[in-house]
Specification:
homodimer; globular; TIM Barrel; glycosyltransferase (chains A, B); transferase (chains A, B); alpha/beta; 16 helices; 404 residues; 6-stranded parallel sheet
């Protein structure tokens, strides 16, 4: 057993050579910052960077069809391995010809390892943790929070957890996570990692990062047996411990991954995140694409784009829309359900050409929410997706204009 | 008061002359039946007949955008005055430029009087009544069922009811119903009528029909004060009492309405409805369009189209889709949520070119329903709307080919 606790050396992997099916092209590098405009070429088409990646958890963007997402300019979409593992299951997706065909999507897809959700259930999500107040929060410091006992067991081998759907026990290991993602067939896949909570002892964090390194190496080995035109991004861990982050960058970037993702707890607030990313970003290889996991709010984007991060996923813009909060370049953020919008006959955003803004007023969408009509969340979500893709296009233009 | 209990004679109205904004053109009359292919010209474009009219109760077709409805070939859409009266209210709709502009619809709209919903709440809907079993049903015979006390009072003047939203008392009269519909501005409006229950004494039914005649005449008088490019259809009542139906046809068709609708209880089952319509249809003027209120299931359409009914509204196709039941020319009716569809990788309908059938399999839509993803009901509803418009196009072709 002891031998397995050492991370496999990079020399046990083939050295990285460019893929014919996956290529990151840097079109322009700012002279003002580390920002760059690029294009990731995948088997299902290009991804312009910096780019926003909406999250279609269950192989669907809630309230927005694939065709509407295409029209909104969505290129890369995220789907969650964990949810798809429980329903409809990788076998069904494989029988349906893979995730693209199954969900009727022609453009690029990225899936995660499933680890994030499993460990979020175990520890509570980072987001929950950061928004916990008082005793609950401080009381949690330094130890793993006990989850709703969905995670039965974490071992070197992997994790055993109970399905929230039917209670059956499921084992997820680096190898099985990759096999699941092989069955899905997304263009970009993620190695199995652990998401330890923000509040954790240094010793436990270190042990977790080292185990995650071993898990990522095993994931990569499994992936390389059958690459299947999929790219794999190595995930940098280490929480807010700079020494561990340094170690993680060195180890993960020594392996032949196709790109990098920044994962784990990245700070209790935006400033701590910015500080951490300022430390991390200059140390990552510039020639491979870099993805920031789970963050795409606008203030974070303004901070992160100049650091050279290329893609950002978040379920926030779609979730906000679904609950009636929309973004607007002309009016700021609006909660459409507020009574003051009942006779607000202008569009959400004067500069937006999305179907919601072209055909409907704030007052109408307000009415739809008040009347519990599903078209309210459909239109608000569609608008927010348009807003995000337009925002990213603006970032790309600003970089090309050397404004960023 | 007694004077008001006599229906105003048709001689107190101007005689009907064709409108410049509303015209019913009969393109072909079958030599085999009373079926006809026609076109209703409205200020917001044509309605090809026989035509299906989906119901967008709250000024929205649940799960289907206006643009998707247009693409599906929907021409006339129904919206419910009662729901829109409570939310967002006629003043808000008028302030937003009328219902078309408010809801972002460029094609024709029809609104009802609000009476149907008010009285459905009072008596229970006809549908509920017909599906009630045993004691509950027979125990209801011959008397008005007490509703959830939403209707406070029915008088010659109109009806006072409580809003189910906030409990406030609202008075609906023939005049106010028309004024509300003036504020909405739909292309076709309906005079205020009462919907008595199927199980009612002959005396009460007769009193109700006569009162409805007086209400319809008052509605028409109110409408003619300010026609506002709107057409008004007179509603034929009389339940399943042929003598009263005869009387209602004679009275209503003597007034200068732009078309006719068949309302009230039309039978406890499809055969009783067919028998009643066989009696009614030859007696209605052929040169004006005829609408059947609330019925558009496929077996009913097969019976009713040959009788010469021109438009049919129903919330059934969209409600069925929303709950996972879809129609298919190649596979019959399917309940998508059934486990057997989990690996059913073909489309709902091989002959359908709707976005659901073009891009997605039954298995995927099944998964969306199982995962409670809103896109499931969006795709299934969109498909059913396509199915209905295609079915009506087929009816028109079959009439033109003299097959019907």
């Amino acid at each position: 057993m002891h031998r397995r606790l050492v991370s496999p050396s990079s020399s046990s992997f083939p050295s990285y050579s460019p893929r014919d099916f996956f290529r990151f092209e840097i079109l322009y590098e700012s002279t003002k910052s580390r920002a760059r405009v690029g294009r990731i070429h995948t088997p299902h088409g290009p991804i312009d960077t910096p780019g926003f990646v909406p999250v279609g958890t269950n192989a669907a963007l809630k309230g927005v069809t694939q065709q509407q997402a295409d029209a909104a300019g969505v290129q890369l979409m995220f789907a969650n391995s964990y949810h798809l593992l429980l329903q409809p299951g990788p076998d069904t997706i494989a029988a349906g010809g893979g995730l693209h065909k199954y969900m009727g999507r022609t453009r690029p897809l990225i899936t995660d390892s499933g680890g994030f959700q499993v460990f979020s259930l175990a520890y509570g999500s980072v987001h929950e943790e950061l928004t916990m107040k008082g005793a609950g929060r401080s009381g949690n410091q330094g130890k793993y929070r006990e989850g709703p006992s969905s995670v039965a067991k974490i071992t070197e081998e992997g994790v055993v957890f109970k399905s929230y759907r039917d209670g059956r026990k499921i084992t997820l290991t680096p190898e099985s996570s990759v096999q699941i993602q092989k069955a899905y067939g997304a263009d970009i896949i993620i190695p199995f990692d652990e998401l330890p909570p923000y509040h954790i002892t240094p010793e436990k964090l270190e042990a977790s990062v080292h185990r995650t390194h071993r898990w990522e190496a095993r994931s990569l080995k499994e992936h390389l047996k059958n690459v299947q035109n999929q790219a794999m991004y190595g995930v940098i861990h280490g929480g807010v411990d700079y020494k561990l982050r340094q170690e993680s960058i060195e180890y993960i970037s020594s392996l032949p991954f196709d790109g990098h993702a920044i994962g784990g707890s990245i700070g209790k607030d935006r400033q701590e995140m910015f500080d951490l990313l300022e430390f991390v970003m200059p140390k990552l290889p510039r020639e491979k694409p870099i993805h920031l996991l789970g963050i795409a709010d606008e203030p974070s984007l303004h901070g992160c784009v100049p650091m050279g991060i290329d893609t950002f996923d978040s379920c926030y813009p779609t979730r906000a829309g679904r609950h009636g909060t929309v973004f607007s370049t002309t009016r700021g953020r609006m909660h459409l359900i507020r009574g003051k919008h009942a006779r607000d006959f202008g569009p959400i955003d004067d500069n937006c050409d999305c179907p919601a803004c072209k055909h409907h007023s704030v007052a109408y969408i307000h009415h739809l929410f008040k009347a519990h009509e599903p078209n309210g969340m459909m239109l608000a979500t569609l608008h927010n997706v348009h807003y995000m893709t337009r925002l990213m296009a603006q970032f790309r233009q600003d970089i090309l204009d050397n404004k960023i």
